[in-house]
Design brief:
Elements: H1 2-8, H2 17-36, H3 44-50, H4 53-63, H5 66-80, E1 83-88, H6 94-99, E2 110-114, H7 115-130, H8 143-158, H9 166-189, H10 193-220, E3 224-226, E4 229-231, H11 246-266, H12 270-290, H13 293-313, H14 318-334, H15 336-344, H16 350-365, H17 369-374, H18 381-384, H19 394-402, H20 408-439, H21 444-463, H22 472-504
Antiparallel strand pairs: 1-2, 3-4
Helix pairs in contact: 2-4, 5-7, 5-10, 7-9, 8-9, 8-20, 9-22, 10-11, 10-12, 11-12, 11-13, 11-21, 13-14, 13-21, 16-19, 16-20, 20-21, 20-22, 21-22
Length: 505
């Protein structure tokens, strides 16, 4: 039993069960005191962080490894969308603005200080301290993905000179900096195959819980808000889980399913494979519950790509791939009525508005050389677009004016200029090139892991043609995928070094 526990919690040996229970009890009591005490009122936006306290003591004791604890916290934080607002823009109160006849916009309208940012900052501090010791880990820059990421941030800052509302630009730039910090930390700290397996396993567990919640919402219409974490259901029963919107939930679940496929063949034990199988089935049902047509299409492309490349590379047996394909068809057949109804349902002008949005975005981009090369300012598109609307009027005109263009590529070009767009495309392209390089490598782990991550990136890339990627959950998941892809270089460099040392020996 001890050996079994050590495989999952290697530092648990030597600690008594009562110590773990006592630490959890103390944490629960302390968290309840802070939240409920009339002398220590805590705003609801902060309560989600306070509720972390009950588990912090126990987790530290279980892992006794702060670096691994930070990795686990990031994985869970991405799934639960843990963040809170510290600055609210006047445009953020959309319902209040509409009620009094004022104009509202769809953009980043608040500064988010996330649980993940706090954890990452702590991680950097520990990393800085650790680098002063004798056993410091080497720092890697990951040029192919880091340079375009920094270029995107730079031209987002440059675009501020064109911005009508500097505060809105600041919100966007602050988010990009947070995403880069998380990406760079993960890429440097997922140093071994065991690190990456641990991180992805925690991520899968969190997404399994998220998927179950979404299915419960789909069946019952249940919505809730607790400790700052909200889970809502749309009027057409499109589920969101805690991921903000149905479109966000759909694309994240579909990308996650591509990773699950890889882990099914990478997990060595039968119990782990059963876990991956459960994640896949529950995740597919949760994906259907989001009614996200773009996410469905991306998932189909990803699964077919995984099956074809996995078979061609010889990492996956043909029989297993056939079973995967049949399982996907069976799930689709069982829930065919829900899928069919969504595909045939009236989308209230959503699809028809897309080409109009694209034309309006091009009007903004081509209006002047400054707009073409510098953009109109990060996060300022919805403020600027109405003055260029020669596309359509009436209700649909208001819709496309107040909504950022549902194409992240056009939105990036319009807001940060041509150079900002090129760096963003370079960020995505470098990830896919790196993915293909690892797929072609001789390492079974690196090849299969890269295949799943690459399919996940493709899922999100397809969604980007019809979505502005303003919502934080899917944006942070995209950067997380890139960080996992970049971390594969750590394994390759170690394998090359090991091979060279054997040859020299």
């Amino acid at each position: 039993m001890i050996e079994k526990n050590q495989r999952f919690f290697p530092n648990l040996q030597g600690h008594k069960i009562w110590e773990l229970g006592l630490s959890l009890l103390v944490g629960i009591l302390f968290g309840a005191l802070v939240v409920s005490s009339p002398y220590l009122p805590v705003p609801s936006e902060w309560q989600k962080l306070v509720f972390v306290i009950p588990f912090a003591f126990g987790l530290v004791m279980v892992f006794k490894n702060l670096e691994k604890l930070i990795l686990a916290a990031i994985a869970v934080g991405v799934v639960l969308n843990l963040d809170f607002s510290v600055i609210i823009s006047p445009y953020a109160a959309n319902n209040a603005n509409i009620a009094v006849g004022n104009r509202t916009i769809i953009a980043l309208t608040e500064l988010r200080v996330s649980f993940i940012l706090i954890i990452v900052v702590v991680g950097y501090l520990l990393w800085l301290v650790g680098r002063q010791g004798a056993n410091r880990q080497p720092l890697r820059f990951f040029t192919s993905t880091s340079v375009p990421a920094l270029g995107l941030i730079f031209f987002s800052i440059v675009s501020v000179f064109q911005a009508q509302d500097v505060q809105l630009s600041f919100f966007k730039i602050a988010q990009l900096i947070e995403l880069f910090l998380m990406y760079f930390y993960l890429a440097n700290h997922l140093r071994t195959q065991q690190d990456l397996k641990f991180f992805v396993t925690v991520l899968m567990g969190g997404m399994l819980a998220e998927s179950i919640l979404m299915i419960v919402q789909w069946l019952t219409g249940w919505s809730f808000s607790f400790a700052g974490i909200s889970a809502n259901v749309g009027g057409d029963l499109r589920t969101t889980g805690t991921l903000g919107t149905a479109n966000s939930a759909g694309v994240i679940v579909s990308a996650y399913l591509a990773i699950v496929c890889s882990m099914f063949w990478l997990f060595p034990r039968r119990s782990q494979k059963v876990f991956a199988g459960i994640c896949f089935v529950i995740g597919c049902i949760a994906l259907i519950s989001t009614a996200g047509r773009a996410a469905w299409g991306g998932f189909i492309v990803a699964i077919l790509g995984f099956i074809f490349i996995g078979w061609r590379r010889g990492w996956v047996q043909r029989r297993a791939l056939v079973w995967l394909f049949l399982l996907t068809l069976v799930i689709g057949a069982i829930f065919y009525p829900a899928i069919y109804n969504r595909l045939k349902a009236d989308d209230r002008g959503s699809a028809a508005s897309r080409p109009l949005m694209f034309r309006l975005a091009w009007n903004v981009i081509s209006a002047s050389p400054l707009n073409l090369f510098l953009g109109v300012g990060a996060n300022n598109y919805a403020l600027i677009a109405p003055r260029y609307n020669t596309v359509v009027g009436d209700y649909l005109g208001n819709l496309i004016e107040d909504t950022s263009v549902h194409d992240v590529y056009l939105l990036t070009w319009a807001e940060t200029g041509l150079f900002g767009l090129l760096f963003f495309l370079g960020f995505l392209a470098a990830s896919l090139v790196k993915t293909w390089k690892h797929i072609q490598s001789g390492s079974r782990f690196g090849s299969l892991m890269a295949l799943g991550l690459g399919c996940a990136i493709i899922v999100m890339g397809i969604q980007m043609f019809v979505d502005p990627y303003i919502a934080r959950p899917k944006t942070i998941f995209l950067w997380l995928l890139v960080s996992l892809i970049a971390s594969l270089d750590n394994f390759e460099s170690k394998e090359v070094s090991s091979l060279l040392s054997r040859q020299s020996g």
